Amino acid sequence: MRKDETLVSHLDWPLFISFMLMLIMGLATVYSVAYNPENPSLFSFDEKYGKQVMWLAISLFLGLLVFLIDSDIYRKFAFPIYLVTLSLLVVVLFMPAINGAHAWIGVGSLGIQPAEFAKISSALLLAKYISELSVKQQNTKNVLGAAMILLVPMALILLQPDAGTFVVFTSFLFVMYREGLTFDPIILGVVNAFPGIRFKETWVGSHFIPIMFVAIFLSVITLLLSNVTITIPFLSDTKIPGSMGVLLTLAILGISALLFIRRFGTKRDRSRATIVIIIGLVLGGGLSFGVGTGFSSLAPHQKDRIELFLGLKEDPNGKDYNRNRAMAAVGSGGLVGKGYNKASVSSVESNHVPESETDFIFCPFAEEWGFIGTLVLIILYMFMLVRIIIIAERQRAAFNRIYAYCVGMILFYHFAINIGMNIGFAPVIGIPLPFFSYGGSSMMSFSMMMFILLKLDSQRKDVLR
Amino acid sequence: MNFDARRYVIVAFIGLVGIIYTLRLFYMQVVDDTWTLRAQEIAEKRKEIIPPRGVIFDRNMRKIVSNRTYYNLMVCEAKIKNLDTVAFAKLIGWTVEEVRQRFKDIVKGEGTYYNKHSGKRTSNYQKIRKYPFIKELTLEEISKIAPHLDNFPGFFEEVTSMRNYPFSNGANILGYLSEVTREEIEQDRFYKPGNNIGRSGIERFYEKELRGIKGIRYVVTSALNNAIESYADGKYDTLSRQADPMKMGMDMIIQAYGEKLMKNKKGCIVAIEPSSGEILSMVSAPSFDPNLLVGKRNIGLNYPKLALDPNMPLFPRPLQAEYPPGSIFKLVQSLIGMQEGVIDENSGFPCDKGLVGCHGHASARNIPEAVQYSCNPYFYAVVRRIIHQNKKSNMFADAELGLNKWHRYMESFGLGKELGVDVSGQRPGLIPDSKYYDKWYGHHQWAFSTIRSISIGQGEVKLTPIQMANIAAIIANKGWYYTPHFVKSIGNKGPLTEYKKKRYTMVNSKHFDPVIEGMRRVVNENGGTARMARLDDLIICGKTGTVQNPHGEDHSVFIAFAPMDKPKIAIAVFVENAGFGGTWAAPIASLMIEKYLKRKIKDKAKEQRIFDARLSNYKTVSE
After folding, report:
1. A307 to chain B, minimum CA–CA distance in Å?
2. Mean pLDDT on A410-435
3. A333 and B29 in contact by Cβ < 8 A?
């Protein structure tokens, strides 16, 4: 049994243990929330917890298989695996709709969701593709190739429609960012098409992650201010619309920065900084203006949704029902919670929080364990995510590193969005909380992801390239 | 180019989300209680358990107001499945249209609220809530329906408690219950829509003492409004508690007897125990069976009939009818005259019929005779002396001074103001003062001659029957009274404090003896006006009155107390349009006194005469 010994000694135990801990916590929460006093046994397969136990067993069995099989196959067979899931994504579109989405293959509670598995196969193929690129990555073809790997399954998923998983696919942008893929060639192609402009680099194309978040921040501020009127006290109480306020603030900031640099900067700094600030001002202003006008031209129901999310409007018993109930459940947990199996708002039986055993499983957990529990959960997740990045960075093979980043970022997205929608920080899009939410497909896909990562990591020293 | 540093951007990003989320959760879960309150609003429901109202006993511990179990047929629309309206209508004995209409009425009855955000009106009605479909079914009625309710999911029975009156008497005193109004709910958060509240009489005055303490159960409810479990294992639940039984000073046997005597007559009887101020009986005729106004269905059926009855059975005459007192007022005039020193026990005045009409009798030589003969000119003279004491040279100023002094005396007898009996809605009567006459005649434009009819209890003077009975009680006590009241004891705490306070009149007790002697003669001596009230073995002291009535036959009045030395009962009887006071009011009072003190009536003929009397003004209501 030499092989097992290698596995045991090479396995990353911190990650494995945190992974197992979460599986146990998740199962305990499903048991609590779906508890039916008529079938108290954890193994009663009429109940959701019985089924979850089954999915868990299947996942662990799959994990065992992953551990036994040589890790090289994932790289070798990444493309066929990708094609199989793609075809499943096509097949699923012809399946009968459940809750308005063609997401399930199979019958009843035993169906699977191909979209969950598409995440793994896309991660594998992306890892293979990027790792096999030459050092000279900065060409349009390569970037488009990587984008295509993601865009095809994303398009198919959007057809189901499954907005949640679609959004999760954007987590691969982080991976591309880490690997230094840049959209500069494409942007340059567009920008330099204008006469008189000759840029060597745009900075935007390669630092898209930080820029994206500046953009999101600006948009949110603009939207928050879209309905208010700002009174300027010095200019005889002139009233201006809120969106103009953002532009004005940006302009004031930019001009003061310019003056500051003119006064203190060197000559070379000055010319560079001036260009950067002017471009930033134009882009920021344009974005803010675009978002503002775009928002006001939205259809009323879309506007409603955004306004509800930003807290500009209240409709706790109508359109905002889910989020309102979820937040009430979480918030009522207090410091130490109501106690295990004592959730009053979010138990399946009371049914105030819809989907409290799947997408909203954080509710019963937070309600029963309080802030102590949620703190432990967040720390556990933080630990796991950072551990995955540490593991990623110690890989010798680029494939392994990229795949590890993919896993880390997918988990991070699920964590951030799922918990975010329970605390009013993210819109309500149905995605599960990994290892916690009830459901066979997500349980199997997340477990597989982890087992493959653990397996790759345990064999990292075998790879000598 | 090396991108390894970018790992820190990503880690920082993850860390940032982790920190923000932790802070947010700390704020939501520990700092801010908005969401906890919201959760309570959503999932924890207070279920209120209304205890049966307090039971009421009479002075001999006979139960006079109790509770009976009734059943409400409830409906919850969300739970209705394939309702066979025809079969259901048949089961409850309605038509299909009535059933449909009832559904509409329930929705309508819940009203609407205005949503500020959407600017729309929305119904308060919720399909998942339960509403009473038929209220207040008796055990008999529900037992025909309940066994079949399994066929009609969404309908179920609920127990409720309502008033029951073993004696069908005292309706105007006890009052009745009806559903709270929106204003009452807003004023007192104890009430929820559909709760009952005391609407009149004792039930209203002692609402807080009778309603008891609501029990509260906190339950965790589902989104469908079903109770799932008790909240925190019932740690915060409180038990409901029925109010302590209430003991009234009423003697229900006397009350019932009084109502029987007053049958087919209009008027009232008020009997008070002078030593305590407890009201022994208060008959308002005609009356009605209090059971007619139990529950929404009965009220809906019977209230309009009672309200439209020309005999006005709902009108509590003893408290609200204001009558001129007539000759019984002369008692008080003599007392004031003696206290003021303008006359004494042995003052005599001629019966000068030129001044005012009188009946044939010798001139009164002293107070007892004046009372005995009820001499009108005598009291003109007395009151003239009270009003005009020649303290001021101007006659009009003198009258003003005298009248206001007289008014203060009257107030000390509890007249011209609300007595403060423990039921709501009592009238003050009217004792005029100088301001009153100034308004009519102008300042310094009137003197005794203008207002002289007040001397004999006519003219502007008005008293309620309870005030009349209280005069009898004051005379029996020789100068003081307890405010008349119904409730002897709440639980075992005794009456309210205001009924424990002895109230003295401005007249010294020594002046009462000649008046009492006069009242003795009225009943017991030849030439007395109330010989029909005489009893062989019991000395009743009384005074008749015949109140001139411009609208018809005179009213018959009699006030009395008995026995003479240790008075146990003071009584006032007022019979509308019955003529001479001695003919009707006096024998009724006498029968009441005899029934109360002896429990048996000796002179059956006297009793029968009253039973048979059917006074002309009493309008027969066709059923």
Report:
1. 13
2. 90
3. yes
